[in-house]
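[Q] Does anyone have a clean structure-token version of this?
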Amino acid sequence: MALTVADFLKMKADHVKFTMLTTYDATFAHLVETAGIEMILIGDSLGNTMQGRGTTVGVSLDDVIYHSQCVMRGCTRPFVVCDMPFGSYQVNDDEGMRSAIRIMAEGGVHAVKLEGGARCVPLVKRLVEAGIPVVAHLGLTPQSVNTLSGYRVQGKNDEQAEEIYRDALALEEAGAFAIVLECVPRGLAKRITESLKKLQE
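[A] Here you go.
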């Protein structure tokens, strides 16, 4: 039986570390499960690793659903999260809801992950209210590579750091049960981790 959101919240509260690996197919999903990995991400990084693209921007909703189906055939215990690709939720929240519902229903995964801070809060609330667990993603957000001018550490100055910190608190308040912090300074990551309420429950 697959792990649940409640299992991960308990691990956080107990300060128990767990591992999350990115996986795109049934064979690797089986190997990951055999190794005892607790969480799998079907990342839109499949654009880089599987499709030979230079960025994740060209990955479609159908692409991530296909790879989700493959992964779900290869494992039973890991909690499986699927990225919402670029263009699947940026137009408006209704489009985001439809995209997430397709990922959950057709892909069979346990949660979705989306990139972005305060602008995503209303959508996160709606997804959680609809019964869709959400993992948020802050810091280096690859879908924004063109506005970030490349793959760079984010939050190095005080203004950026404070924005990422506020975004993390807002996303948790909106219902995100976990947050990926990618390429942020260690001190900022520690501050956010120690401030999130669910970590203290």
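[Q] Thanks! Anything notable?
[A] The radius of gyration is 16 Å.
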